Amino acid sequence: MKRPTVLIAVVVLVVAAGAGWLLWGGGDAKATMQQAVSGPYTVQFSAEQPRIGGNTFAVAVTGPAPEAVTVAPVMAQMGHALAPVPAGPDGPGRFRAADVALPMSGQWEITVSLRGPGGPAQVVFPLLVK
Fold first, then answer.
1. Domain CATH for 106
2. Which member of 1, 33, 48, 97 lies 3.0 to 4.6 Å from 71 by CB, making a disulfide possible if both were Cys?
3. pTM for the complete prediction?
């Protein structure tokens, strides 16, 4: 008699876990990743689920190690240009800009600016926020 009760409990837990995974976006993770070259730098930009509100952007740089990295969101169609956000170190050649606020959905351009021994450089990445 205990065996069917345990089996039912396991099935209920599996169904609940699957429903939670689907409802809270576990199966819906959409990251955007792009790469560009500027001067001696190769820059890779990624954003996990771009959205209205706070976003975290990751920047990976190969070439001379930059001393400073910033990201600056611009929405040209609406005339929005937000202040550059410094990206802090996140490992060798990797940087992370956290809590970059995007106030509305639409097409954004994220300008990644580098300053380092290879000279200054900028790369612009398109970013669609839904």
1. 2.60.40.10
2. 97
3. 0.76
